[in-house]
Amino acid sequence: MIFVGLVATEPATQGCGYGDALLEAINDIMNAAKLFMWLTSSNVLNDAFYNSHGFESIGTFYLGEGNPTWTEKPTPVQIRVQEQA
């Protein structure tokens, strides 16, 4: 299992294919090792990007839920998995 901690690009370079290239490189490593990868995402604007790379949402947890020191509304965080091709 490979956890993808962060996929991000500078706003000015978004849409140029850098994120695609990064996930494709990780995907090549994953397939060679016969593993799957997973990540978490708290931004629904990224859903289409992750869906296009075969990630499926398998659950959601809420960051800050039940934490008395959390001062904001709980943040939904999706758990997404991409199984080996």
From TrEMBL:
Domain of life: Eukaryota
MF term (GO), any: acyltransferase activity, transferring groups other than amino-acyl groups
Domain N-acetyltransferase: residue ranges: 1-76
Cited Pfam families: Acetyltransf_7
Protein name: N-acetyltransferase domain-containing protein
